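Box 3.1 — From sequence to structure: WD repeat and HMG-box DNA-binding protein 1
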Amino acid sequence: MKIRSIKLREAHKCSNGVGSFCSVLWDKQGEHIVTASSSDSSICIHDAILPANPPKVVRHHRDGVTALALSPNNTCLASGSIDHSVKLYKFPAGEFETNITRFTLPIRALAFNRSGTMLAAAGDDDGIKLINTIDGSIARVLKGHRGSITGIAFDPKSEYLASADSIGTVMIWELQSGKTIHILKGIAPVIGSDFSSMNIVSWSPDGELLAVPGLKNDVVMYDRDTAEKLFSLRGDHVQPICFLSWSPNGKYMATSGLDRQILIWDVDKKQDIDRQKFENRVTCMAWKPIGNALSIIDIMGKYGAWEPAVPSSMKSPTEDIPGLSSKNGHGLLFYDEEEENPSVSGSLSDLGEDSHGESEPFSRKRLHKQHSYPDDWEEDTNEELELFPKVEPRKKAPHGHRDRSDNKRNELKNVPISAGPKMQEAIQPGATPQQPGKRRFLCYSMLGSITTMELDGYSHIEIDFHDTSSGPRVPAMTDYFGFTMASLNENGSVFANPCKGEKNMSTLMYRPFSTWANNSEWSMRFEEEEVRAVALGTGWVAAITSCNFLRIFTEGGLQRHILSLDGPVVTAAGFKDELAVVTHASPPLPSTEQILEFRVFNIRTGTQPRRGRLPLTPGSCLSWFGFSEEGHLSSFDSKGVLRVFTNQYGGSWLPLFSASKLKKPEETYWVVGLNTSKLFCVICKSPDSFPEAIPKPILSLLGLSFPLASSDLGAENLENEFIMNSMHLHRIQSTIEEMEAAGEDTSLVDDEAFNTEAALDRCILRLIASCCNGDKLVRATELVKLLALEKSVKGAIKLVTALKLPNLAERFNAILEERINKETTGSTIPASAELKCDASFNAHAALTKSHVTVESSKRLESQDFPSLNLLAPSGSKKRYLEEPIKDVNVETENAKARKLEMAREFKSAFDMKKAKKLKDEKDKVDEVKDARKLENANEPEDGQDKNGEANKVTAQRPSNPFAKSSNNKQNASLFDSLKKKVKADRHLPL
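Predicted structure (token representation):
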């Protein structure tokens, strides 16, 4: 094997690490190379003359690109994708033209016919669509394959179409009738569900041979008319062939196999003349139309050119191309201005005298060999023009040679009228596309779902709640209007449908779940406009129409408000009193980025509290929009990025989830809703982008996290937790301010704020530890300034002291002192508060001062009970220490005084118990000493004063206040009761 160094450049990054199917092709002048990958939604147009120049990137698909095709006149590029769409672009500019067709499953193969007026597209669906590229209509659908169709090819004579599928079946179709004339089962390898390699079919340039990968690691050649096996190319491939390509003159063939080899064959001699082995499997190849080069691309998205592909001593692969006119040298015959055009007046039965009728299709073996290729041109052109009736209005009667020639040139351009980037159509959150014969979702939310299925011309609608114990049981209903969108809340449901002709107007219907009156269901009909989106809230129903009207109705059906919006609606969502509407702010940018705007209305107050631009990931569109369970406005785009609106920085959108961070490109996330910490979605496996209604989809809970950059500490989880807690604390503090402004009680929210502050401090302390271990001391100093609680700052000082960082500990001490000075300087407490605080700390002190400073109170508090100061919150629970207190609630002050008094009593009882213990020990020592003295003393002669002397000694001993058992029990009981009280108070832990 000859060793050559073929430099490969990365065109597409492989996100799954194992490789995917990639495509490559040349333009007809050999100036550009086009590449695509099924793991990348972009198409790259490379400069073949100056490969170092950056490629032109075309991004219009939502998912990986699986197929490419270039029209014969080199002006139109077609692409197929996993997102089920086939798109057309101008070439080489790469400007988007149109979505020419859509499938229900991914596309795997594309091919233009010889004139470029027809495009064949196929994939995982069960049919091959033949599309007129001039008007975009579908001329015919060829059905017969049972596996995914992976390869299609028009024969150069425009008579047949060959196709191959994933289970090894090859079919040959007659274009005139649309019938199958040959079915060859099991002649190609079975690829199953591994679409990193494809079964491919390819006609020889003269149209006489059909090449198919064989079962013996070879290429098998079949006859054009009889489908008989003629010969095979078998060489050193040790694994099945996954791609093959004819040279422009048909003399050579390049084959790539699963064994990572490329072989160049001399077809006439049936032997390989050169070969090359690569690091990865080559999935696609294309011969350069001009010159001696072969472009290749492997499964990792790396492409390059093998030049020369055929040894220079041999005939060039572009020399003596069959049927090549003297006026062009691109390997395919095009229409020319001076070329005589065939007559098109014949019928479908006059397509050729050598066909012997449609009843004998198998008797045409080798009959075309007696004609030279240019002689068959008139017949082939007749076939192409007569195949599809929708092209006939563009034909002209043969009134002159020049008119017919001009008409031909217009048809060959086949470039659709440019409409620019297309604006996103309106969507309804939680709805799925219509599928014939299948049940679909009109609405799917955190509350429940609304499904519909068409039966006998009508639709059957069912409403189900996820929690059947709380939601009402709603009977099914028959839909006579053909509703396509719906919305659901606890009180009822709203339905709407677009216009269906002049007689079937757009209808809006509201259906309450429970009501005190009969016939509470109502409906509205719209003339000369149609409903595009609907939403529900507390006591209101909203509908946005094609006239850019926002119509607000009450639950009873009263038309309350009609507002004009600035642009076409994209979607809408409701939550309690708030209605959020997304509209187009302007046409899309040339890069197809949508320019969207959101507006939030408060229906109860008649105000518009928020308005601004809705951010989207470049190249994406809006796929879900709504409110979280807590009422936070949220959006999700087709690139898998979730954003939540916050009032920070004057109103901003925070990215709280990114599907790319999960590194699972084979999964699509269909969003249902979210709460403070979790995203509720249905995970759909590629190529599906939405769930089926039956069986009911399973909700998955994914954690919310910011798309942070890779930290040099390796502490992304801690940093994410820090930002999340900071965001939650900001929201809680905003809520407290709003409640205080409204005069509402904030005690419960204060507790939540304190808990969040404590959790945030714990996270910051862990981050400080990571910074110290990673020698990021400046970052640690920044973090300690963010600690909310004074006890946390002292904990940080202990931490860095234990880590033997005295300089850092000194800085932390300075920060703590500075904080205390700032909090205490200039702050005062009124006389009433001073009396209560002073009485709680020292009941016997004289209250003579009228005002005391917070600094003196803190100093007194730390003297009496040090741990009390460490746990006092610095946020919502310490506001009375940060600012002068003007209006102090008496009941709140009494509670604070009681807590301080309990602390003092606890300390007093603790000191009493300690003193008692010391006194008991001293008494025991004294008793031993007295006993020894009595033993050594001389007894009286009469013995009468023995007991009296002992009593005298005992009487001289000082009295013990804790000696009596009753007193001991009383003191112990007092101590235990105070201990329980203090334990019950979380602000005064032991």
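Summary of the box: The chain is about 25% helix and 30% strand.
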